[in-house]
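Following up on my earlier thread - several people asked me to post the actual chain instead of describing it. Fair enough. Here it is, all 395 residues.
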Amino acid sequence: MTSGRRWAQVWRAAVFLLAALATGIATLIALPLLCHPRLARRWANWHRGRAGRLLGTPLAARPALRAPGRRAWADPATLRDLLWLPVNALTGTVFGLLTLLCVGNLVPAAVATPLWWAFAPEERPRLFIDIPVTGWTSALTLGPLQMLLLAALAYLALPPIARAHARICLAVLSHSTAEQLADRVAVLTRTRADVLDAHGAELRRIERDLHDGTQARLVAIAVRLAVARRVLYDNPRNEQLLEDLLRDAHEGTEEAMTELREVIRTVYPPILADRGLTGALTAVTARCGVPTRLDVGDLDTVPAAVEAVVYFAVAEALTNVTKHSRATAAGITVIRRADRLSVAITDNGVGGADDRGGTGLAGIRRRVLALDGAVDVDSPAGGPTTITMELPCRS
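Reply from S.P.:
Thanks for posting it. Predicted structure:
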């Protein structure tokens, strides 16, 4: 992992844990109010969503409680929602205070090092909890030392602490086996409907392309050949007209073949059959308008459907990078772990990518979910952007 990506994880973990501190304190203050089953469900769903995104396993929210009175309290998930309240108050506050202690003490050190002299003697900043800064010697030694130690602590400790808090959240709020099965059925039902809609739209597009393009050209070729045959029968000495008709028919045949190849390419790119997934991704990254690093591990045999999804997803993502991100560099990493294929697409652009507006990212998500995969988009404002895909890859 590069240092830049690691520091991005540290920043994300710090934000996550400081938010956990805020929610832990809010839980303590509003505990009587949050004990209402419907509010507890919303509170728990919000935390499950945060934890799932941090761990790269987005989870569907539990349905909102609509049953009144005792039936709401009888819902098996309500007990887990209520259990999360004290657990979050404890873990969120403890982990958040540790993060605040680490991050918060970076600020005094950063201020004390260059500006210690601007404070009155009795108000001068203190480093390492209780050591006053009295001169340039202590400022230039203790200040950088404190910043270095706290930065190293944040670098090493904050991501695992954040993941630990997220795992605790998911452990408390995890579905029962029956709920997991119901959620899985719901996801598969939704993705099946999306796939059927996309499949119908794709068939209509292919039919339209063939009808308006290739078929029209083939009809024109047939007409020219019929005229040429008539000319050959009625006036065989008119060689110039015959030559013009046959030339037009020949050019029309080549254009029809080109259009037919374009249609075929949108169904299953021939480059995948010719060069495999690694070669196809190499060609895609080479055509990208942003310098792109490609890192592909040993993939062994990848199912054709998975290859097609990865190819189209990477092509769409790099198109978005070129058009919208204002990035100067991008990276593609493809790794196979047992029966899972992991694809990470990164760029150092301005961020802010969102798939809720029906953009190309939504199409990527539909393609991946159709194969029982998972997609996570991490694109804070200001960047960087990371799109992670996990696909089943059983040979």
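Residues 196-267 form one domain. That should answer part of your original question.
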